Structure prediction request, 1338 residues.
Amino acid sequence: MAQVLTFRDALRATLMEEMDRNPAVVLLGEDIGVYQGTFRITADFLTRFGPKRVIDTPISELGFVGAAVGMAMLGLRPVVEVMTWNFSLLAADQILNNAAKLRYFSGGQVNVPLVIRGPNGAGVQLSAQHSQSLEALYAHFPGLWVVAPATPADARGLLLTALRGKDPVVFLENAALYGAKGEVPDGDAPIPFGQAEIMRRGHDVTIISYSRMVHLALTAAEQLAQTGIEAEVINLRTLRPLDRETLIRSVRRTHRAVVVQEQWRPFGAAAEIAAVIYEGAFDLLDAPVERVTGADVPMPYARNLELLALPHERDIVAAVQRTLYRQ
Amino acid sequence: MAQVLTFRDALRATLMEEMDRNPAVVLLGEDIGVYQGTFRITADFLTRFGPKRVIDTPISELGFVGAAVGMAMLGLRPVVEVMTWNFSLLAADQILNNAAKLRYFSGGQVNVPLVIRGPNGAGVQLSAQHSQSLEALYAHFPGLWVVAPATPADARGLLLTALRGKDPVVFLENAALYGAKGEVPDGDAPIPFGQAEIMRRGHDVTIISYSRMVHLALTAAEQLAQTGIEAEVINLRTLRPLDRETLIRSVRRTHRAVVVQEQWRPFGAAAEIAAVIYEGAFDLLDAPVERVTGADVPMPYARNLELLALPHERDIVAAVQRTLYRQ
Amino acid sequence: MASKRGGAKVRAERTPAGPDLASSVPWYRLMVLTRRFEDEAERAFRRGKIGGYLHLYSGQEAVAAGFLAAIRADDIFFTAYRDHAHAIFRGTPPQAVMAELFGKQTGVAKGKGGSMHLFDVPRGLYGGYGIVGAHIPLATGAAYALRYQGTDRICLCFLGDGAMNSGSFHEPVNMAAVWGQDGMCPIVYIVENNKYAMGTSVDRSTVVTHLASKFGLHGIENEQVDGQDFLTVRRAAERIVARVRATGRPYAIEAITYRLVGHGAADLFQPYRNKGEVEEWKQRDPIQILERELHRAGVLDDAQVAAIHKEAEEKVAAAIKYAEESPEPPPEELPRDVSAQG
Amino acid sequence: MASKRGGAKVRAERTPAGPDLASSVPWYRLMVLTRRFEDEAERAFRRGKIGGYLHLYSGQEAVAAGFLAAIRADDIFFTAYRDHAHAIFRGTPPQAVMAELFGKQTGVAKGKGGSMHLFDVPRGLYGGYGIVGAHIPLATGAAYALRYQGTDRICLCFLGDGAMNSGSFHEPVNMAAVWGQDGMCPIVYIVENNKYAMGTSVDRSTVVTHLASKFGLHGIENEQVDGQDFLTVRRAAERIVARVRATGRPYAIEAITYRLVGHGAADLFQPYRNKGEVEEWKQRDPIQILERELHRAGVLDDAQVAAIHKEAEEKVAAAIKYAEESPEPPPEELPRDVSAQG
Ligand SMILES: Cc1ncc(C[n+]2csc(CCOP(=O)(O)OP(=O)(O)O)c2C)c(N)n1
Ligand SMILES: Cc1ncc(C[n+]2csc(CCOP(=O)(O)OP(=O)(O)O)c2C)c(N)n1
Ligand SMILES: [Mg+2]
Ligand SMILES: [Mg+2]
Prediction:
């Protein structure tokens, strides 16, 4: 059976269940307790689990992410909420030089079962310092898993996997999705990392994306269907590992691919995805892989400029048409 | 005229000249003064320019990189030495959220003429926390220029441009190159950003790289020449901006490309370079672009494992042969 | 009240009357203006005219006013995202600030920065920053630059109580002390201790709640001040600014204050504090305190007060109108300003 | 000498004789062993047998020895890259450490970590870290975990003077104080103040050179100790460890010490200090101080001392031989250990 939940409630319920089940799970973050969480993912958690498990931290990203790594090394299973991923840059050293690597440089003596989660990507008019999508940065580093769910079902299934694995997970949510509803399977069904989902079948072109952009891709696909173009839409779910097989199998069938990402094009995630497609389907590609990306500028505040800086359905439609030489 | 200089001396001499010429240039970094610089780039600078211009800092990467941004905003031209780029992760917030963006979010009211320089990439057995090549990370962010010189001439020409521009520059050196010698043109000849150099002409395949990897590419090209394969070797010099034109023009001629980077393959620089090539030369490519990269693991300490983790000439040769379907 | 947490010893430096009372009238006017500005900005936010985050300064006005009243026209300052009042106090036209909040081409930063990133470089405002604490290194380096350039200009750095728990605070403040030994760091750090960082009260985020003292352990002279009393703040500011200008050494002050409104416009329920506390602090509203003082000294009468309020109302209404009617930035603005050379 | 900088008040807690003298002999033996180990490691480095960075602990032995002598077998500790002695003191076989430095499969971390990243988790050594200060948050969180798990185990965190200028230091230490209020942070921060961070002396990187006092800024009890005297350190450590174990509150100690060797094996010229200073500190070599004490008390005679030195020599020679003869890690090791699930 399944029930309809918002993305927020899927996260909440999963976290709560897992905390009920496993006393090793503790939460850390700014204003997750008394304040009830900036995005209310942890509302009521403090009352339910108490201050030893729901730890309101000072504004010390480097300190509390690092402390969570230390907790994880000792066998706790900390879940850090970064109020937004933008602030994670202050903790980059702890994430990239400790969490990601210390299993390796200890010769496998310690695990770091740590989940860092929070909203990633642009909001609405949050401007340059608060509108970043950092998946390409984190996915570059071996030792991390990088997860970017698109649906409430993804949110639940991937969070379950994250909470039960033994490695550090960069869990990238999207504030615009918190209110989005979707069917969430009941019961205990973790979604393994590295398993993309084909959200829509089609034979003319493959549109590949993750997180919020998947929804744009689906809308674009509906629009394209009205012009007789059947797009396959792939939701990657995780960037590291990348489900090369599903990707490549699809493109080898459709001969065309469009990759959609929210952030800056240069050295962005779409470049890697495109490279993987070329490497796996070069001989069967009928057109260059199109990258639909955000504008290569820090995010402006003004709404009209912000809209110009973000990818839209029409950009995806146009890119698809280019792969079909319809333009 | 030109003289033969080491990479180190090219940097030293250029910094020194520019400091003589422009009193706004100040240096900040750990142990650049009394200690004479970890890699002796600034040896004797303290005596010559005094402690107001050669500022030994505490171990406060976030603090002193940020302070340098502030100095730059007021019209100084700070040059920060990060002892190695690994430590820059502690200053990531200042580099990515302030230096890169504040010109934009101030509506163009301030410039940030800042150069951050130091060794990037693996050394010899420095292990996981000290062996990282961070160009893909920094080149993703608009507002920064990302420079990776391969030769003493590059070092001088690009540093001159960096020191005279008005924007923040991520200047990635390589410790293994500091002792390398090369001809350096006399006089005042800045190398503009975004101008790749063709280091070797060839018509069978284009090998693209930057920094230390260029030298591997050149050696591989010599080896290939003995088997009758003439490789063109491109030294990108800057990652942001990327000289798409030179790249694409070359590949449209050779029909084959191999991109070489030292660091991890997923979401690495080679993905972007490959994507640019595909986008510009899709119809003329006879084989998928090959990526030669480091192994996807934190750098191990043991020398034999480290050698396995790094790209070698033979990997480039093999990749070229694959593009020619010789394997 | 100021001494509630951490046993703050607050310097008392008020003079009941004298020349600074008359010269405080323009600051009273500005404080009334900014309060009105904040109220109307919030209303515009609710109407969907302003987007993103919106952090208001209501209740804290005397802190920035007191310090900005004490510096020279060529001095500079940095602050965080709660920055509207700082700009307006310094002379940035309210309509240019409002237009920025509306995301319009006529905004101080052409609509690119928004509420959190006000800049007015000609007037010495070097921003407006959104990452808590991250402007403190900038301000510290800027102060160094001012001395390096041979001037006697100084730099103010406003920061929140919450920012003091970050490495972005400790690292540059330690360096400022070192640089100050050579007279190379003319900066005043002004902690706006409004008791909370979002929903986290000072005593839940640190054990040492006498925040000024934290500067002492970096070797920086410091004191606390009653941040609700403009005259007190201004007097302290004048003394401190003169000394920092003369010595080139950093100084720190913790102003005990309170934000009467939510953390941001989205902070409606405020589960972290009770109404009583807010009401208590309303009794110490800095505008009323100054008004009473000016009234008592006969520098302002009721009619003048009314006129000042009316004027503020009109100015803000005009600012709203201006912002509303201003054009959006044209699409060509999108790629502009990313870099100087590209 | 200990009180030279910052007017350090150093606690004197030495007892001239008594039961702890006899129990100190094994520690004397370990200190002699590690000194020899460091000397031979440096020689191996010069012969090209050891790569990368190599940071030796010579001169500072009494600090780690004194503290590791005071904790229980199930307690844990974290340190920076100057970590060989810490591992050996704790019982990690010297040959496994040497093999790690040689990059061999038989090393404590299979040759993957090297000198800077010694780990021996079964013995409570949670690393060995190369980014200055970056292990301090880890140790702080680990201490929390120990209490959360309902144990009375404690955590030691060794750190350098230079690390104290980083946000990696201030942020977690502030949190430790907060957590300590609930008895949730049983950690001892042990500053190995060896006067320098590479070439930067303490007084060039901060104005407040009484480093222990900086913990006070965060609300953590603290003191200084003469780090050259094993007996003093150990006595203080026993008192502090007992208290931290009982209270779950953090405590900090600054051990005044000196590194008699270069920062790393590559630091040959040491332009930042003069020979005289080094010579002066050689007079306070911790091994000689302890040796004299044990000698005077009649716990050790000349023959025993000689035997201990000979034994150290042999053990280290054996460790070198073992390391030399051990196999390199096989190529299959390259992708192993990146993650648990992949
Ligand atoms: C590094 C960082 N972490 C978290 C946030 C989210 N955040 C915005 S304001 C704020 C509270 C800051 O409090 P304080 O410094 O006291 O300033 P105040 O809002 O009271 O003026 C937080 C946590 C942020 N912007 N930056
Ligand atoms: C964040 C960071 N910055 C710089 C370095 C380079 N570095 C290595 S050791 C060191 C000095 C550290 O001094 P201290 O903390 O006093 O420890 P000690 O070496 O004296 O034991 C520096 C600057 C580093 N490893 N990490
Ligand atoms: Mg506050
Ligand atoms: Mg030291």
Remarks:
- Chain B touches chain A through 48 residues (CB under 8 Å).
- The pocket of magnesium ion (ligand 4) is lined by residues D 160-162, 194, 196-197 (CB under 6 Å).
